Amino acid sequence: MSERIFISPAKYVQGKNVIQNIGGYIKDLGEQTVVIADETVWEIAGNDVVKQVKQENIKAEEVVFNGEASKQEIDRITEIANKANATIVIGVGGGKTLDTAKAVSDELNGYAVIVPTTASTDAPTSALSVVYSDDGVFEGYRFYNKNPNLVVIDTKIVAGAPPRFLASGIADALATWVEARSVIQAGGDTMAGGSTTIAGQAIAEKCEETLFKYAHLAYESVQAKSVTPALESVVEANTLLSGLGFESGGLGAAHAIHNGFTALHGDIHNMTHGEKVAFGTLVQLALEQHDEKEIERYIALYTSLGLPVTLEDIKLKDASRDDIMKVAEAATTEGETIHQAFNITADDVADAIYAADRYAKAYKEKNK
Ligand SMILES: [Zn+2]
Fold it and tell me: Per the domain annotation, does 103 fall within a domain?
């Protein structure tokens, strides 16, 4: 029996306008930061972060992120950070920026401060990054010996982001309990490298419960650019509960299938992480034995949030059986998380992809 392991960031801060206090939270960590954000995010939040940091007499080296969490980009920013003698890496933005910031802080053996500007993925809290090629193809997970030191998420900024981002985060978070449950049932290992704790299980379950209660209200809140208790709960579910829940609860098929999709070319690359995970979750549910009502509960929530549920929705209407097999092969390569939860072949995965597509089409037909 393997050890039970639970890991988490040292501190998590969430609320309206909390970015205005960020200087106070990091002032004891050091004197030189490197701040990473892409061009758009500099305007939305990056400049504010630098202002707050400087108010505490901490220096900031500003870097514009080029858009891909690739080895080349990690090396480029590490060099800039080294030249500036930075000991604190502050990543501001979406999943790929944050994953890059974690990698750079690992290279420097420094502190990682994560400032998500959307609640679109569960990347912020974990001690791992997903690394892609410069063309956006999944290359692998990169594991670190510690989680971020600080995560600061300002819900006012999240409420101002496009609703599609929140919906993507909800989809990513809805996978959490589905995947953790399958790993627990199969006795597999989690991303933290041991078996699931009671805490990890409880967090993953609570994540799903929160989303089925509040996801829709939160989505409407963001349409109105309003911070509400429903939005606060969903931001916590998407970021903290999903982050802890996937890392210490376990990843199964949904994320492996997501990773498989990145192996294809074409319009699918315009889908967000969460959108691909939404379809991956339906495929995992199709691999398991659930009744119609249970599967439709997910399809109903996804469709109400504008999330993709069919192959056509994820721009794969014209995909050949060969393409789908390519996804299935990639999802079942050695070391993929699917093996922590299932004893299956690529052919089984391909069948489930077609089945999930049909289930969703039938649901849409019925609810026209
Ligand atoms: Zn994810």
Answer: yes
